[in-house]
Amino acid sequence: MANTGIARYKLLLIEDDRPMAEAMKGLLLQWGFQVVICENFDHIMEQYGAAEPHIVLMDINIPAYDGFYWCKKIREVSSVPIVFVSSRESSMDIVMAINNGGDDYIQKPFDPHVLVAKLQAIIRRTYEYRTTDQHVLACGDILLNLNDAAIHCGNESIELTRNEFKIMRILMERKGRVVSREQLMKQLWDDDCYVNENTLTVNLNRLRKRLEDIGAPDYIRTKKGMGYIIP
């Protein structure tokens, strides 16, 4: 039975055994996940960027390089959860999977219920960061109050401007994923008027300075040529 709370989460499946990939997709769709199957193993990073998944499910043995290599490449730009699913069973494979940035390792053949339970647990740990007060977002040491647009870090707090608040909310809700400048501009100024890109830069620089003042330097990271991320 599908878990409707999972429905907003997208999964990128990197599996070169097509019948296995389709079977896994069918299972995960039943549980409410959105599923994108990798189609080109020479361009995994491009497909990762296009899909913007909340979680990656990856085999080790794939045609181009291997899963360890692509896990490291993804880790260069994102802290998105990565779960290995492989028929390889040596303890060294598990160690390498974790050491290269993987979050979990599931051996084939697997119990479908175990796979789903593990994915749900990782998503809860990674993305269910809302407190019992649904008007607050929390990522790391930062709390964002959605009612009054105030940021709290330890004993320090500041009130954000309209644009600063929008930027923080977008990045916190997409924690671990890169948000492009184009996406931010569309969210901030989604109308017919022309807005100079420098306006976004000014807003981001001011927000970073304010975060630094309350003890959160480098909270918003720049991924050159890609956009911004809260890791």
UniProtKB/TrEMBL annotation:
Response regulatory domain sequence ranges: 10-123
Key words, A-Z: DNA-binding, Phosphoprotein, Transcription, Transcription regulation, Two-component regulatory system
UniProt-listed InterPro entries: CheY-like_superfamily, OmpR/PhoB-type_DNA-bd, Sig_transdc_resp-reg_receiver, WalR-like, WH-like_DNA-bd_sf
Pfam families: Response_reg, Trans_reg_C
DNA-binding region: 134-231
Residue numbers of 4-aspartylphosphate PTMs: D59
Domain OmpR/PhoB-type, chain residue ranges per copy: 134-231
CDD domains registered for this protein in UniProt: trans_reg_C
Family matches, as PANTHER family: REGULATOR OF RPOS, STAGE 0 SPORULATION PROTEIN A HOMOLOG
Protein name: Response regulator protein GraR
